[in-house]
């Protein structure tokens, strides 16, 4: 039997993603790729994987078949359970045949990455395994009943390992942006509103763009431009005045002015915001943006650490274990109550 990963349940937005499909934007093909690249890197590097399964807050349940699989999970504060035993959000562990891995929305985060130390036996589209659901490029979104065939399986760890990636430690500081490239299409008060207001991630948010709820941003020179390239993190403002932050599945080009662009070092933190959560922006210059990107790159280059863990004693583990050797009834004649039938 071939080794497979069985999908027992999957909410919306569960897809296979690798680093992305680059070099084709001029042909109208979006890069796709992970929403939170630093979390994706933490999971895939831990088990030597090229791609990972990106799980949204709708959750998913997976089961191994045919072989024990090395698995890494990272990204957000999700509720991660192995056969109902709760695991920390970032962990490497063996997934044995028949064991179930459940990923559900937890205290925080919008995207979680499940990396398998193996190769997905799926055809690449334009050199990438990344799924872009709107265009139908790449593997289709995962659904209950799917089975992913695996090959080149790496040796699984003997037990659970703590995955410590310093770059996953995040705070609630404002998302840093560089103004432009079309901030001159807005009056100064619109730029001031962008930087001073508290914004809320709207319900109309997905892998293509995050809608921001807050003050309407008015235009000074109209809301149409000659279409130009759209980068992840660009804050596009159509005629409605509602800003949209373009994300991994963004359109390759856009004809609305972009008032600012979130810097690369903060994109993962921005992506992990759920609808209803709030954020603020802070303008930075080119030097600070480059320094932040370099710092993140250096931290990721230093690598994560994997620390063996002893078996953890938890309420779930105790309830799952058979700690009783047997029971007797107080009415059993072989075991009379104390003080009777003795001496």
What can you see in these coordinates?
- With 343 residues, the protein is α+β, with helices and mostly antiparallel strands.
- The protein has 2 domains: 4-169 and 305-319, no CATH class; 175-299, Cyclophilin, CATH 2.40.100.
- Helix content is 14%, strand content 30%.
- The protein has 5 helices and 24 strands.
- It has helices spanning 37-47, 188-196, 267-271, 286-302, 315-320, and strands spanning 4-10, 15-17, 52-55, 60-65, 69-74, 77-82, 85-87, 91-95, 100-108, 112-116, 119-120, 147-151, 161-164, 175-179, 199-201, 209-213, 228-229, 234-236, 244-246, 253-254, 258-262, 278-279, 281-283, 305-308.
- The strands form 4 sheets. It has an 8-stranded mixed beta sheet with strand order 22-15-16-19-18-21-14-23. It has a 7-stranded antiparallel beta sheet with strand order 7-6-9-4-1-12-11, with no helix packed on it. The protein has a 7-stranded antiparallel beta sheet with strand order 2-3-10-5-8-13-24, covered by helices on one side.
- Strand 6 and strand 7 (85-87) form a beta hairpin.
- It starts with a strand and ends in a 23-residue tail after the last helix.
- Residues 312-343 have low confidence and may be disordered.
Topology overview:
Layout: E1 4-10, E2 15-17, H1 37-47, E3 52-55, E4 60-65, E5 69-74, E6 77-82, E7 85-87, E8 91-95, E9 100-108, E10 112-116, E11 119-120, E12 147-151, E13 161-164, E14 175-179, H2 188-196, E15 199-201, E16 209-213, E17 228-229, E18 234-236, E19 244-246, E20 253-254, E21 258-262, H3 267-271, E22 278-279, E23 281-283, H4 286-302, E24 305-308, H5 315-320
Parallel strand pairs: 14-23
Antiparallel strand pairs: 1-4, 1-12, 2-3, 3-10, 4-9, 5-8, 5-10, 6-7, 6-9, 8-13, 11-12, 13-24, 14-21, 15-16, 15-22, 16-19, 17-20, 18-19, 18-21
